[in-house]
Each structure stands twice: as C-alpha cells, then as structure tokens.
Amino acid sequence: MFLNLGFKSVTMDDLANEMGISKKTIYLHFVNKTKLVKATTNYVFHAICDGIDRIRLENKNPIEEILTINEFVKQILKSEKTSPQFQLQKYYPKIYKKLKENQFTMMNACVIQNLNKGIEMGLYREDLNKEFISRLYFLGHVGIKDQNIFPDKQFNSEVLLNSYLDYHLRGISTDKGKKQLINFLKKDN
Asked: What is the pTM of this model?
C-alpha cells in the first residue's frame, strides 16, 4: 500500500482495514507509523538486495546480468508510483536518507564488480573511470524518478528505465559488448 499510495497517504486505519485486523494489533508490533515505515522500507530494500545477489551468483555475462537485474527490480517495484519516494523524502527524511545511503552502497559495489567483469571479458571499455561510472549510474536511476524532470504525463517509467539502461550500456560497451547487448535485446522482444 505504501508503494501504491504513498507513505503519508496510507493511514494505520487503512492498513488495519486492508489486513482485516485492528489498529491495536499493528501497534503491538510497531510503536508508531514511523517504525512501520522504516521496517517496510528495510524489508523492500533487503528483498531487492537478496534478489540481486541471487542473480549475481548465476555468473551471467555482465551485460545480461544488468538486464536481468533491471527486469527483477522492475517486477518488485512495478506498482511503485513516484509519490511514495517524494512522500518518504518529505515526511520521513531520516528514513529516506538512510535508504538512499544503503542503496548507493549496495549499487556502487554491484556496478563496480560488474564493470570489472565486463572489462575483463572485453565487453566494456578499458578506459572507464569505474567510480565515476558507478556514481553516474546511481544518479541516473535516482534522476529518472524526478517528476520535475521526467513527469509521468510525458514519460512512461518503464520506457524511461529501459532507455536509461540502453544509454548506459552503449556508453560503456566495446563493439563486442554492443553486439552482445543487441543480441540480448533481440531475444527479449
């Protein structure tokens, strides 16, 4: 409900009604809504991290790995609207800040490992500044959710994410990597 409707918009009454329990029962487990929001964001974050780790253990080609992770995250967050991010940032700034820090730490490590593997395999350019690319990749993912820059009425979020990923991969890939990217994209269509 938080991802669909927003962290501020959903009340404890709404949650109790949806689950068919009393609000008092929720308060037995969470002293207040802030604790519930924190637990919920941590749960979603760890579920995504676990899924990404499972994908990475499959030892896929680095390009296929990024594409697979992208699809996995899209499925997990498919019902997410942009207002929950905004509401989390506005009404729960400490939780938002910690979540962004955790996301950056996790994503930075994953991207750098992916870049190293891609360079080793000759799929990514050798001249890449991995720290810069990793941060740019993170900023791109955060930036395409900014409604001021990419309003929902003008941009479809799934198309945006796919376009951003294509832009990223083509920018870091060698000719060999671009050929593999094109082959993976053809398979998906």
From this structure: 0.89
